[in-house]
Amino acid sequence: MSESKHRNIRSYVLRKGRLTVAQQLALDELWPHYGIERGKTVLEYGEHFARPADVILEIGFGNGESTWQMAQQEPDKNFIGIEVHEPGVGHLLMALEEHAIENVRIACEDAVPFLQHRVACGSLAGVRIYFADPWPKKRHHKRRIIQPEFVSQLAHCMTQGGILHLATDWQPYAEHVLEVMQFSPDFVNLSVTGDYCERPDWRPYTKYEKRGERLGHEVRDLLYQRA
Ligand SMILES: C[S@@+](CC[C@H](N)C(=O)[O-])C[C@H]1O[C@@H](n2cnc3c(N)ncnc32)[C@H](O)[C@@H]1O
């Protein structure tokens, strides 16, 4: 897929959040162990993980609350978390060390070019995108990460039978996902009702879910299988 097709998707805003001293220390001391440096070549997972296993990519992990808990719950898998927000990366690094978690590696960059250049075709057993920025204003809808070109890039990177899991507390965003995904020839919706699924127990309960509930929003889980 050509890069130009993706050029317009800028699904995040780089907030100027200041790093705490502890986060800076984690970046200095733990990044060399857990971090995936930027590059242009396709990743060899064997160079990053201690043992071969299915690889799950979590896109936009925020503070990494879900990431470390899923990795702890699913020790038979390898996880790559990707996030542009450095303080969040520092936060996750600290959690990985605190809980002695070894099956997570972190990339600190935009997931769109990362998928294009660094992830081998058919190499991801799962992709998880939780509480993606919903970009509620109409003029910003094009910034939502779920777009047809991005979905075909995901399909390209995933194994047959791999699971794409999204969760959101913003109903218009959930409907946007349903609409984009229904035109994808590469994914099958796993919902028995053709829309949303039961909350799978592998998804940890995090602050975005709590906030959504406080605001009276329903949380939607969307699960798709790579055809
Ligand atoms: C609303 S937060 C949700 C965080 C987390 N998933 C959770 O549930 O707690 C969305 C996150 O996605 C990140 N993000 C958005 N687009 C991204 C991209 N293209 N690449 C990497 N991270 C991205 C943002 O920086 C932000 O931290």
What does this structure look like?
With 227 residues, the protein is α/β, with parallel strands linked by helices. The chain has one domain (3-226): 3-Layer(aba) Sandwich (Rossmann fold), CATH 3.40.50.150. Helix content is 33%, strand content 19%. It has helices at 21-34, 65-73, 86-98, 111-118, 148-157, 171-182, 207-214; strands at residues 35-36, 55-59, 78-82, 104-107, 124-130, 158-168, 187-189, 220-226. Strand 2, helix 2 and strand 3 (78-82) form a beta-alpha-beta unit. Residues 1-6 have low confidence and may be disordered. Residues 11-12, 59-62, 65-66, 82-85, 88, 110-112, 130-133, 145, 206, 208 line the site of S-adenosylmethionine.
Distance between the termini: 19 Å
**Biggest sheet layout:** 8 strands, mixed
Strand order of the largest sheet: 1-4-3-2-5-6-8-7
Structurally, the number of domains stands at: 1
Kindly name the structural category: alpha/beta
| CATH fold-type name | Rossmann fold
- SSE pattern, N- to C-terminal: HEEHEHEHEHEHEHE
Rg over C-alpha atoms, rounded to the nearest angstrom: 17 Å
| Name given to the CATH homologous superfamily | Vaccinia Virus protein VP39
Q: Assign a percent range to the helix content.
A: 25-40%
DSSP helical segment count: 7
Question: If you average the pLDDT, what whole number results?
Answer: 95
Uncertain residue ranges: 1-6
Q: Give the class-level CATH name.
A: Alpha Beta
Sheet-strand content, in percent, reads 15-25%
Coarse morphology:
globular
Bound molecules: S-adenosylmethionine
